[in-house]
Amino acid sequence: MSSAHRTAVSTSDTDLMLPGVMPIAHASLNAELRHCIDYKTKPLGALGGLEALALQMGLIQQRTQLRLEQPQMVVFAADHGIADAKVSAYPQAVTVQMVLNMLAGGAAVNVFARQQGFALTVVDAGVATPIPQPPRTATEHARLLQRKIGFGTRNMTRGPAMTSAQAIAALHAGLDVVRHLPGNVIAFGEMGIANTSSAALLFSRLAEIPLQDTVGRGTGLSDEQLKHKLQVLSDVHRKHRAASTPLELLSAMGGFEIAMMTGAMIQAAHERRIILVDGFITGAAALVAQGFCPAVVDYMVFAHRSAELGHRLMLTHLNAQPLLDLGLRLGEGSGALLAWPLLVSAAAFLNEMASFESAGVSQATKD
Question: Which position among 190, 248, 257, 332 bears the catalytic label?
């Protein structure tokens, strides 16, 4: 299959065309990279997970000398109608407030993006409040992209969160966002009150895991609030039990930011970019993307294991080994940016570390 192959997903409204994603497996390159890694001046396997990371990045880039160029941080923001069911500790108004904070340079994602040298783009995928385009003087903090599909999704306790046409539009918008970004590394983050509810539902259905194992405290629910959230989501789970395909599940229980991020991940993998996945909500988008294009996960580096209840199970389901485990539960892409120095170090040791032969260092003796 050519990398230009496109997969058609038929719906009653229109046809969704997604770019094909090729697996990164390559026997001869794998052997060459493995030799480069194993014969550096170190004991075999001494750099642990950094070696696996270097190997993965080499297979993604199809080279033994890695290049990390113009890294991008993209935060997709949207509101969820299910917030009306009191499943979050914070009001829906916080979504737009935090987007404005990002555009002003004051959020955690701004701090870490500046520290790590990432360009930051905030995408309005479906925030319930109109967001004014910031003045040009503010663009040093973050660039705002207006790709609003709607003013928040509908309340999924009453019906589907979005129409299939809206889900397709969000997926297509995600493809287009990535097509216009430079660089070969994209980190993904999100912002949206109640989006852990959508992520928990999608994870439960896609991985066939009981809902009680995927629903967590989100922004910090009390025991009583968590019990209420689980009851509400259980009702939603039953109401939309007929949804089964990735597109149907996005339409029934997704969010505009999750759908748009799904398309963006698929496009990034199609272009053989390294994908840095943040936490639980971005992980849900990764699961949906995998449902559309199984090989997309090959291109993903999972930044951290969050404190959200279902994230450990999600990573296990994805067969992913996260780089960090710091008890984070902020979102925004913060964990992805904190993990970035490990990718830089993996590339540096592969590119710059001497081999036993070049350094004239004796190797371990064999019995």
Answer: 332
